[in-house]
Design goal:
It is a single chain. By secondary structure, the protein is an alpha/beta fold. The protein is built from 15 helices and 13 strands. α13 links the parallel β10 and β11. α2 runs antiparallel to α4 and α3 packs parallel to α4. The longest helix has 28 residues.
Length: about 425
Amino acid sequence: LPQIPPETPERDLWKLSFRTRMLYSCLVDADFLDTERFMNGEPGRGGYDDLPTLLKRLEAYIALWQNPKTELNHLRCKMLNACIEAGCKPKGIYTLTVPTGGGKTVASLGFALRHAVHHGMKRIVYVIPYTSIIDQNAAVFRSILGDGNVLEHHSGVDIELSDGAKPEEIRKALATENWDMPVVVTTAVQLFESMYANRSSKCRKLHNLADSVIIFDEAQMLPVNYLKPCIQAISELVYNYHSTAVLCTATQPSLQSFFPPQLEAMEICPEIQEQYAFFRRTVFRNAGEITEEFLVNQLKEQVQVLCILNSRKKVQQIFNEIKELEGTYHLSTFMYPRHRKKVLAEIRNRLKMGLPCRLIATSLVEAGVDFDFPTVFREMAGVDSMIQAAGRCNREGKRAKEDCVTTIFTLENAEELHIPQSLRLPVSVAQQVAE
């Protein structure tokens, strides 16, 4: 018998298991689709616009941006055009390192659409850590590409259908089963749990990840405890299933050592250091250890301020101290989706109108949420978290940098609260850097 090369699935048990799972996905999906046609006659699926049409819509959308009047918009436009031009590069693994406020959402969509059209790929999948970011980004995609071409699939979306459901609602409900829409926006939990699941309903969608552009937005939020299996799955999709992966963030993690040597990540954004120098719109101040009373008094003195803390319990305590003040809000991952959307909309409106707005929140707002506060307080956390939090300060650059302060602090007796194990090492490293 001929020798089997070591890189083939037959010699690598993990690759073999992944291939088996993908074949199982094809079989399960085909079986469900055949049953669907038999039971319903005419399928309620399809009818989406193709990717070349979606690319033309994006080009029409950004056409008005091509003559920027301000230096900030000029730089955003430059990065957007660089991403679209990079879409013609070969398939593989890419990094997109764009400073906060640099227009990462539309720029990454520009790369993905051009890349998918250039290579004749099937779809674009956005993988996002928090549903609060998904709500925001999916709304942008729908406004550009049309509501019928964008699928949101996560725990915060209600896909229950009533008897009088509209055809559009039926199409989206069916698409959640196998991700056969042109643009899919989902969570990292949904994606990676499906990749390692043992249920047909979860595995059914996997084969539609092949030959797709997969954008990992806020890539620094990939779960550290499961980083190796996550990277291994990404590598397999790129190396053997003709997909392209993009690690997209303002604080790019060092992940190259986790990828196989033959998959070297290529950066899309040009002149990264110069971009960061321009987009520095706030100054940092290390307040050291402060009391809870001092923090509360500081927050009361501000008209518009964001305070990010490491524990939900402490967020609730600080909020209770100042909740009687006009325009005071609280956000955490424990809020149900509709309530969170309502609060996010109210906060954005008050910031836009210049009304009093004090937000006490967990880390869910520090990455990807388009807030523009003049002042930010951030409890000591990992360096990437503090940089992301600073991105919510003077985001649009409408104020002088010196007038917009991001204060880093440590709360007195903070060790009495339960701090997640995953935060302890980043906090320790950040404290050494601050010193």
